[in-house]
Amino acid sequence: MPLPPRFDWDDLQAFLAVARTGRLTAGARRLGVDHTTLGRRIAALEGALAVPLFHRDPTGYALTTEGERLLGVAEAMEALALRALDQAAGPREEVAGVVRVGAPDGFGGYFLAPRMAELGRRHPGLEVQLVAMPRLFSLSRREADIAIALSQPEHGRMHARRLTDYELGLYAAPAYLAAHPGITDPAQLAAHRFVAYIDDLIFTPELDYIPQVHRDIRPMFKSSSLIAQMRAIQAGTGIGVLPCFMAGQEQGLCRVLPEAVRLIRTLWLLVHSDLRTLAPVRAAADFIVEQVAGAPSLFIPGAEVAAAD
């Protein structure tokens, strides 16, 4: 029988880095090697397997059919290697390593970032990377170890944990409200200036708020960033939909029609099933869950009172 192809783990890591980034230079930065070294490893793996793994063109590297088949196997091997290292270290008090958390800019920049110092105090050997951006994060491509999302994944080997529901409402600056006609009914909102997301940059349907507020609203200022929207609203640009966990803590914002306009969304904590038992991932995920659970009224105003009743 023919001998199986011989390749080493470094070549598979090189393959995963390029498959996830789509570019040789970006993959090289991820691995901390130069792009020529990475190119040689890819060539060595393709030679060992006797199949092309990537289509190469000026825009980047795209997986071939053979590359797609190898990707799942390589990711499974990577997960086994990570678990082997974690288990070989055995039980230990100190959690060490790197964990990357991907979150929408509002939750990541406004809620998580100020609390990460406490996680660092508990685990001095843990390096936390917080990617707070208005986008979806691919756990299968290792863009993050933990992702905060507004919906459960429909496919993939993901472990989803419901973090919390959160409330959103209409907010405006006092100066804006003083300079414009009073608002007593949602039908009057169409006559006002609005701040919202850029339509074609809304990265998940849960953020398409405006049609639910009133169908005739036409926003005059748009941004892909929730924090930028909030700052624009504070400056008097117009009225906008904001999460209460952000706007409720800010000076210079008044809630508009709090009874008539009340939206509820859900935050989910997602971890790839292969990584959820790793100590750095588990420590960071547990910390996020703890911090959210400790502030129920921040996400749903009056939640603590309701729980007491």
Structure notes:
- It is a single chain.
- The protein is an alpha/beta fold and 309 residues long.
- Strands 3, 4, 5, 6, 7, 8, 9, 10 and 11 form a nine-stranded mixed beta sheet that branches. It has a two-stranded antiparallel ribbon with strand order 1-2.
- The chain folds into three domains: 80 residues, Winged helix-like DNA-binding domain superfamily/Winged helix DNA-binding domain (Arc Repressor Mutant, subunit A, Orthogonal Bundle), CATH 1.10.10; 110 residues, Periplasmic binding protein-like II (D-Maltodextrin-Binding Protein, domain 2); 100 residues, D-Maltodextrin-Binding Protein, domain 2, CATH 3.40.190.10.
- Helix 1 packs across helix 2, helix 1 crosses helix 3 and helix 1 crosses helix 4.
- 40% of the residues lie in helices and 21% in strands.
Mass-distribution shape: elongated
Number of helices: 13
The biggest beta sheet reads: 9 strands, mixed
Q: How does CATH name the architecture of the largest domain?
A: 3-Layer(aba) Sandwich
Instruction: State the CATH topology of the largest domain.
Output: D-Maltodextrin-Binding Protein, domain 2
Report the structural category. Answer: alpha/beta
Number of domains: 3
User: How many beta-strand elements?
Assistant: 11
Within CATH, the superfamily of the largest domain carries the name: Periplasmic binding protein-like II
Computed Rg: 24 Å
Distance from N terminus to C terminus (CA atoms, Å) equals 73 Å
Average residue-wise pLDDT: 89
DSSP helix fraction: 40-55%
Task: Give the topology string: H per helix, E per strand.
Answer: HHHEEHEHHEEEHEHEHEHEEHHH
